[in-house]
Amino acid sequence: MGFKNVIEKFAVNYAHNSMQKSLYNGLNINILDNKINKIPKPDTEYMLYAHVPFCHTFCPYCSFHKYHYEQELAVHYFANLREEMRQVKEAGFNFTSMYVGGGTTLINEPELEKTLVLAKELFDIKDISCESDPNHIDPENLKRFQGLIDRLSVGVQSFSDDILKKVARYDRFGSSEQLQEKLRKAMGVLPTISLDLIFNLPNQTREQLLHDVKIAKSIAPEQITFYPLMKSPLTRDAIARSLGVDDSDNEREFYELICENFSDYHQSNAWAFGRDNANLRDEYVGSHHEYLGIGSGAFSFLNGELLINAFNLLDYGRMVKNHESPVIAKCSFTKKDRLKYIFLTELFDGGVDIAKYNEFNRANIHKELFVELNLLKLVNAIYEENGMIKPTFFGKYICLVLMRDFYAGMDKVRAIFKDDAKIKRSKKLRIMEENTEPNFDNSVISPKAAV
Ligand SMILES: C[S@@+](CC[C@H](N)C(=O)[O-])C[C@H]1O[C@@H](n2cnc3c(N)ncnc32)[C@H](O)[C@@H]1O
Ligand code: SF4
């Protein structure tokens, strides 16, 4: 192994370990006795996140907060979501952008439509993104959302029949051929369609990955996202049972291969590629530093605090109906952690505008992140140019590693709230409680930051 490789490996491990430490050791979740309300700061731009926690099927790698779909339950849930939206409006919030995540957000089209229409009536929302599985993208279904949904990301995961069978999506969503046909028909109905694929699955071959790239490009959606497989204690066993165990970790090699094959695309962030130069943001944590989450298990990031809505559907519904705040827990961050978080999300998105960063954070990045910036420069992960801090190719890979680590932290939060009894036992939980030492392999989860 050459000197450069040794340095890069060291840098990746160092970055990974630091993130793990701050997430696992530093994340204090406070279960709240007293209700806290979400309050807007004047002149702050927020994004609205709405969670739709229903799926027809549960995929082994996925740890998002979800329930098996039942129509009646979903109808009640959407009504509660709209009620929470009205309460947020009364509290004085306004939004220019909305992200609906799941689960499968198009699982009940009429209810989703009512919810999006209301969001546009209440707030100055200019763009809406939603997520779907491939069973709800029939052009006739999608047409009702013209003028409402601007960007729809569709989970494909792989175009290999072998992988689709292993993750139990083949029977539910169709073979690779059938998926391609569904996707081709859906193109052009909404302004932006994004295909979501996962790479570095256990035993995935280089050929399978190149096949995914080729097919995805041939369908020509506006955007293609390649998530690195994220594993956490919540999904590790299910992944091993379905896809097997693989001693080799191809994340770095496959990431290089993906980037090489998308050199004719515009890279919208470390793992998403756009067909044209349009600013196709994906990870809302990257494009919005502050967001408000509504729905069961939704996270909000407001005034430097992570606020967590009730996960249990009945609790959530009762609180909203009683006009009580559905926030059940919160987690505060130090100023330094917030500065690092914003720096990472902007770098992940392509670059940090130094003047804007300093103004927004009332900080001096060169002083406050002195050590971090110099270490990243030393390993050739970032450079400065025209008032911007930009990632090199290696820097983009570090961003990818740190971002998947960040989502692992979110999975830890979900793991705590899966166990109601534990919440009752303890008012203040250290997230470290159930995990002794952070584990330094690829041990993380969940690409879209909510729930
Ligand atoms: C919340 S899911 C919603 C998509 C939709 N329900 C579906 O299954 O097609 C959004 C995307 O996150 C990605 N994802 C979920 N779990 C992941 C994991 N463990 N590692 C990497 N990506 C993951 C998948 O690409 C998935 O399509
Ligand atoms: S990948 Fe989609 S369908 Fe599968 S469990 Fe996750 S949210 Fe549900």
Description:
The protein contains 18 helices and 19 strands. A 9-stranded mixed beta sheet has the order 10-11-9-8-7-6-5-2-12. A 5-stranded antiparallel beta sheet has the order 13-14-15-1-19, with no helix packed on it. Strands 16-18-17 form a 3-stranded antiparallel beta sheet. Helix 4 (139-143) links the parallel strand 6 and strand 7 (151-157). Helix content is 43%, strand content 20%. Residues 421-451 have low confidence and may be disordered. With 451 residues, it is α/β, with parallel strands linked by helices. The protein has a domain at 46-286: Aldolase class I (TIM Barrel), CATH 3.20.20. The two termini are 40 Å apart. The chain binds S-adenosylmethionine and iron/sulfur cluster. The site of iron/sulfur cluster has 12 residues, from loops.
Provide keyphrases for this structure.
TIM Barrel; disordered C terminus; binds iron/sulfur cluster; five-stranded antiparallel beta sheet; 451 residues; binds S-adenosylmethionine
The shape, in one word, is globular
Task: Kindly report the CATH topology of one domain.
Answer: TIM Barrel
Strand order of the largest sheet: 10-11-9-8-7-6-5-2-12
Low-confidence stretches: 421-451
Helix content: 40-55%
The main β sheet shows up as: 9 strands, mixed
Query: Which molecules are bound besides the chains?
Result: S-adenosylmethionine, iron/sulfur cluster
Fourth-level CATH superfamily of one domain: Aldolase class I
Q: Architecture of one domain in CATH?
A: Alpha-Beta Barrel
Number of strand segments:
19
Q: Averaging pLDDT over every residue, what do you get?
A: 87
Count helical runs.
18
Note the gap between the termini.
40 Å
Structural class: alpha/beta
Strand content: 15-25%
Rg, please? 21 Å
* The CATH top-level class label of one domain: Alpha Beta
